[in-house]
Amino acid sequence: MRLTEIAHSKVAEHLQSGDCAIDCTMGNGYDTLFLARQIGPQGTVIAFDIQREALHSTKALLNQNATTCNIDLHAENHKNIEAFIPHNWHQNVNAIMFNLGYRPRGDKSICTLPETTIPALNSSLEILSLKGILSVLVYPGHSEGQKEQKAIQDWQATLTKESVEVIRPSDQKSHPYLLLVRKATCSKANRSRP
After folding, report:
1. What are the pLDDT digits (tens) for 118-164?
2. Are 23 and 32 in contact (CB under 8 A)?
3. 157 Cβ contact partners less than 8 Å away, ≥ 6 residues apart
4. CA 129 from centre of chain
5. Which strands make up the sheet holding 93-99, listed edge to edge?
6. What element of type H or E holds 131?
7. How would you class 186 by CB atoms within 10 Å of its CB: exposed for 0-12, middle for 13-18, buried for 19 or more?
């Protein structure tokens, strides 16, 4: 099973009709579409990406699949998610997804960076509900990805071990892996904001 499929399977366990969910790295829209299908017409998905092309690709995918839930797309850096999340969503979001690196079939020189991803991860834990899950696909196979992986490992060390699950298809450090953080077991006292 591919890591994206595992991420979807794990996230689906935390979502039901009418929920709120966030896609922090819209890319080509596949996670946004997945979230929309999970929460149905009464739910809401907010999605972010710094590239306008990602927004256009996602809109096209959502239109092709006739999604019926409320979807709010932003051409915005994920480090600014708190500014776009309604106040009543704070601690009511049941799933937040990150698929890091660069957009598939896009400009590989534009990728996620530690200085924006770590603040976004911290904001995500503030927004996430107590029963929520944070899904982060990490791609250390390129130079920026290696820096981002190091920053994420440092951030992960601030969390309780019980809150974190790492799914790695291989022991090789250059391979992508999935990091899952469950809010219910995540100790606020053990987290630090930069």
Report:
1. 999 999 999 999 999 999 999 887 777 788 889 999 999 988 887 88
2. yes
3. none
4. 14
5. 70-75, 44-49, 20-23, 93-99, 128-138, 177-182, 164-167
6. strand 128-138
7. buried
